[in-house]
Specification:
Chain lengths: 334, 326
């Protein structure tokens, strides 16, 4: 799993793009957490802090018209496809200028124009739905590939198994990415799963290769995702990738995650994808000034998105009654 | 010209009509292709449209409904079969929590034009797990349209309207009606959702029924007329969502009395909603109690003698209506 050697077949621009993604996602999640603690983000929020390399690496390997399906922990995956930070931050704050007009919230981020086909908050439910999008691409001959992200906890729900089987039988152009952050909500995944690797050890049951990647290494994720997407686009069917990673924070909201052993947390913090990747880029000869400039640009973008979100109007009260039906309304009787 | 066909044949004809018209219509489900459907409602579709558009699936209801949803979100118009409506319980998350809410949660970014067709209801002695009438499950979820035809012609026309609708439609075929023949006009049939139909005019009471309860209500109305001189108007609701309250309210305003005949169990059955609307909006026109004739609040038994006691019978409709009229 651990990639000790530095991959050589990634060009400089791609690496800088990956770095820009990881930095931007980190700054965004830190800000989302702060706004939650300040009471501006209501309800709940599930952050990808520490896990950004996966969303970044996969998104960089995708074509603009490819499709993403996210979970309720979907800020990073939504942003990584190019969804503007303003619209995502405003959605977290429940404002009219949010990507879903304030009707989706943190757990249901969607931006169809960026290929983000929704964030689904029932564990495992979106794997079968993502299959449908892949089936549609196959029927339409569009060449689109669908990527479906989910957590380790989803591997123990029925929908995961139904979806993997159908995807394999129908040879669908889809890539399933399991973000194994070692905890299903608050419980260690190992305590409730019959196998060591919750996704990879199940792959064989569906005729798929067991693939485990270092989810804290943007290069490794990018290469693995690129290969899987290429196979899917070539008609060779689905891939299941298990990306090992770690949440820096708790499951949701203000959960400090203090059910996790200190030494485990420390070990993973030492493998924080952001400073690790910066270190790698410096070793590869990229100037610190160039990386600093990227960091500054991303910090500015988060600041601007925060201001735009705070300044955004509350949703029109009428919008509570729109878009139940395709005619735009909510009427069920004459 | 018209011909007599079975409700079963109407299903095949309806699917074929829409698949011929629109290449984006695809059909998936368990045993629907090579086997022609467990109720033989889909015979010949595989031969006409091929295995790409008519697709057998594993016994994976979540995978079936999920595939239909994802395809509908991305340009296709899928028809998904759930073999028995009882199996909705195995994929209810996809139907009620994913499909029904996708458009609303995304502020209209996502549209889900699909039809979930299923064999619903009792009368075939299948017992408690293959006989449920679940129209009220679907009706209570915002975002789902719910259609349940009682005749072959209505089935074809309402099915076509469902496939062409931009919203998800739960299409309930009452399985005891499959062998029943009725007249169907030639040519393409396209009906309109949200339209109830007065299937027998009358003056003394309005009987509102759905699916297999419609022929029973009609027979009861005939007996009431013959034996007791009571003139009952019978309305086939056809579509629970959208609901044609106008036709029902107009009728009750005239007849001044209402009875509903429901196959679903008593609590929160669709008739309760109609009774409530009539009670609120038609109260001053009423001359008698609002009457609900339903399956009692029990699971359905298997034995024919017991099942016949639970589903609303012609006799029970006659007695209940006569009692309502005093």
């Amino acid at each position: 799993m651990t990639t000790t050697e530095v991959p050589t077949d990634i060009d400089r621009d791609t690496r800088l793009a990956l770095y820009r993604q990881v930095v931007g996602l980190r700054r965004f999640e830190e800000r989302a957490h702060r706004l939650f603690m300040e009471g501006l983000v209501k309800g709940t929020s599930h952050l990808s802090t520490g896990m950004e390399a996966i969303a970044a690496g996969v998104a960089e390997a995708m074509r603009p018209d490819d499709l993403t399906f996210c979970t309720y922990r979907g800020h990073a995956h939504t942003l990584a496809r190019g969804t503007p930070m303003d619209g995502v931050m405003a959605e977290l704050l429940g404002r009219a200028n949010g990507v879903c007009g304030g009707k989706g919230g943190s757990m249901h981020l969607t931006s169809v124009e960026h290929g983000v086909m929704g964030s689904y908050a029932i564990i495992g439910a979106h794997l079968p739905i993502a299959n449908g999008a892949a089936w549609s691409a196959q029927l339409r001959g569009s060449g689109q590939v669908t990527v479906c992200f989910f957590g380790d906890g989803a591997t123990n729900i029925g929908a995961f198994h139904e979806a993997l089987n159908l995807a394999a039988v129908w040879k669908l152009p889809i890539v399933f990415v399991c973000e194994n952050n070692l905890y299903m909500e608050y419980t260690p995944i190992g305590e409730v799963t019959a196998v060591e690797h919750p996704a990879a050890d199940r792959a064989g049951a569906y005729g798929l290769e067991p693939i485990i990647v270092d989810g804290n290494d943007p290069d490794a994720v990018y290469l693995e995702a690129s290969a899987a997407i290429e196979r899917a686009r070539a008609g060779e069917g689905p891939t299941l990738i298990e990306a090992k990673t770690y949440r820096h924070g708790g499951h949701s909201r203000a959960d400090p995650g203090d059910y996790r052993p200190e030494e485990e947390v420390d070990a993973w913090l030492a493998r924080d994808p952001l400073p690790m990747y910066r270190e790698r880029l410096l070793e590869l000869g990229i100037d610190a000034e160039e990386l600093d400039a990227i960091e500054q640009e991303r910090q500015d973008a988060v600041d601007a998105a925060t201001e735009a979100a705070k300044a955004g109007p509350l949703p029109d009260p009428e919008s509570a009654f729109t878009d139940v039906w395709a005619d735009g309304g909510s009427s069920w009787r004459n | 010209m018209a011909e007599l066909i079975t409700y079963r044949e109407a299903v095949t004809r309806a699917i074929a009509q829409e698949m011929r018209r629109d290449g984006s219509v695809v059909f998936l489900g368990e045993d629907i292709a090579a086997a022609g459907g467990v109720f033989k409602t889909t015979k010949g579709l595989l031969e006409e449209f091929g295995p790409t558009r008519v697709r057998d699936t594993p016994i994976s209801e979540e995978a079936i409904i999920g595939a239909a949803m994802g395809a509908a979100m991305t340009g296709m118009r899928p028809i998904a079969e759930i073999m028995f409506s009882d199996f909705f319980a195995t994929c209810w998350d996809l139907i009620a929590v994913e499909i029904a809410k996708a458009r609303y949660m995304t502020a209209g970014q996502v549209t889900v034009p699909l039809v979930i067709r299923t064999a619903n209801g009792g009368g075939l002695r299948f017992g408690a797990q293959h006989s449920q009438a679940v129209e009220n499950w679907a009706m209570m979820i915002p975002g789902l349209k719910v259609v349940a035809p009682s005749t072959a012609a209505d089935l074809i026309g309402l099915f076509a309207a469902s496939v062409r609708d931009e919203d998800p439609v739960v299409f309930l075929e009452q399985k005891s009606l499959y062998p029943v023949k009725s007249e169907v006009p030639d040519g393409e049939l396209v009906d309109e959702l949200g339209t109830a139909k007065v299937v027998r005019p009358g003056d003394d009471i309005t009987i509102v029924a759905l699916a297999a309860m419609v022929p029973r209500a009609l027979e009861a109305a005939e007996q009431l007329q013959q034996d007791r001189g009571i003139s009952a108007e019978v309305i086939d609701v056809r579509s629970l969502v959208p609901l044609d309250t106008r036709t029902i309210l107009d009728s009750v305003s005239r007849t001044t009395r209402l009875a509903t005949v429901e196959e679903n169990p008593r609590l929160c059955g669709w008739g309760a909603e109609i009774v409530s609307i009539v009670g609120e909006e038609c109260f001053w026109d009423l001359d008698g109690p609002l009457t609900r004739i339903t399956t009692p609040h029990v699971p359905l038994p298997s034995s024919d003698s017991l099942e016949d006691l639970t589903l609303p019978s012609v006799e029970r409709i006659v007695e209940s209506v006569a009692k309502a009229l005093g």
